[in-house]
Design brief:
The chain is an alpha/beta fold and about 325 residues long. The chain contains 13 helices and ten strands. The protein has a single domain, classed as NADP-dependent oxidoreductase domain (TIM Barrel, Alpha-Beta Barrel), CATH 3.20.20.100. It binds NADP nicotinamide-adenine-dinucleotide phosphate. NADP nicotinamide-adenine-dinucleotide phosphate binds next to helix 12.
Length: about 325
């Protein structure tokens, strides 16, 4: 699997990663109903087998359960192989700016909590999950810098930051001689805003890697959901049947393209994200999903087909 550097941080990770929000999260993803710990463990092992070494989690995913699972699976893999795989597995987690966390010290304290759940001495990437108006970007970046200086994080990034916020974060970290490695944002065939609101352009200009979350649009871009078969649970409330009807023509095109390449719809959707220059982190809940998503790498949509999808999705860009 091709490796890329996260910004100018010196940290190199696989060009395709995996997201673990669903690992232990019952509220949004329905953990415990239809999939459980054994499925997640198989998803992890399959991901490692496929050569993917970038795992994205957050302290709030499953209220800490996602980090705990990831730590357990890492240790089990080490024990099974009788050799440490941690140097080969790159872990990214996130600080959640809860309204009572107002100081740089709290960034470091939260990271120590994450490290404990993960069972690690340090993470490869520590990210601020969302911008908050309650704490200045400068204070949060000072906290990230302290995490690097204390050797608790190899690289630091942000998430859901707009172009101006990326500039401010980059500038403050530069005062500590630390590069802003990444900005994690929603980017997929049904969320093209970053192409038009300056975020992609700014990240390119400042050498900040774009980490594309929800590359399958929370499952909509797998092709398995439709007005007759809407998304389950809390996710269902987010996508109206009108929206699901609206995106069916795109899914028809994606199916046609998938057949042309002998791939699946999710593989085409993820491959498009990667070809747009972003590091994709699709979520997977079981072995089959992990295997299928890993198969989004190792081949490329043609430049003409990427262009075709660019054009097509600008036209279907819509609200939910
Ligand atoms: N920074 C942020 O604010 C933020 C926000 C959101 C996500 N993220 C990160 O991005 C990661 C990925 O995003 P996401 O999990 O929200 O959504 P996603 O990757 O767009 O979709 C993942 C979901 O789609 C379904 N799926 C995945 N692969 C499939 C396959 N091959 N075939 C059929 N169904 C498949 C699964 O749900 P079902 O089987 O239930 O349909 C899976 O949980 C997260 O895990 C998290 O690490 C970050």
């Amino acid at each position: 699997m091709e490796q890329i550097e996260l910004g100018k941080s010196g940290v190199r990770v696989s060009r395709l990663g995996i997201g673990t929000w669903a690992w232990g999260d019952g509220l949004y993803w329905g953990y415990g109903r239809g999939y459980g710990a054994a499925d997640l463990h198989q998803a992890f092992d399959e991901t490692v087998r496929a050569g993917i070494n970038f795992f994205d989690t957050a302290e709030v995913y499953g209220m800490g359960k996602s980090e705990t699972f990831l730590g357990e699976f890492l240790r089990a893999a080490e024990n099974a192989q009788n050799a440490p795989i941690r140097d080969g597995a790159h872990i990214a987690t996130k600080f959640f700016p809860l309204p009572w966390r107002l100081t740089r010290g709290q960034v470091v304290r939260a990271l120590r909590g994450s490290l404990k759940r993960l069972g690690l001495q340090r993470v490869d990437l520590y990210q601020i999950h969302w911008h908050t108006p309650l704490v200045s970007i400068e204070t949060l970046m000072d906290g990230l810098a302290e995490a690097v200086e204390k050797n608790l994080a190899r690289a630091v990034g942000v998430s859901n930051y707009n172009a101006d916020q990326v500039r401010r974060a980059h500038k403050r970290l530069a005062q500590h001689n630390i590069p802003l490695a990444s900005n994690q944002i929603e980017y997929n065939l049904l969320q093209r805003d970053p192409d038009f609101n300056g975020v992609m352009e700014t990240c390119r200009e400042l050498n900040v890697t774009v980490i594309a979350y929800s590359p399958l649009k929370y499952g909509v871009l797998t092709g398995k959901y439709s007005p007759a078969n809407p998304l389950p649970g809390a996710r269902g409330g987010q996508f109206s049947t009108a929206y699901l009807a609206h995106v069916q023509p795109l899914l028809v095109e994606l199916k046609r393209m998938a057949e042309k390449y002998d791939k699946s719809i999710p593989q085409v959707a993820i491959n498009w994200v990667m070809q747009r220059g972003a590091l994709a982190i699709p979520g997977a809940k079981n072995l089959q999903q992990a295997r299928e998503n890993a198969g989004a790498s190792g081949w490329n949509l043609s430049r003409e087909d990427v262009e075709f999808l660019n054009e097509l999705t600008v036209r279907v860009r819509t609200t939910r």
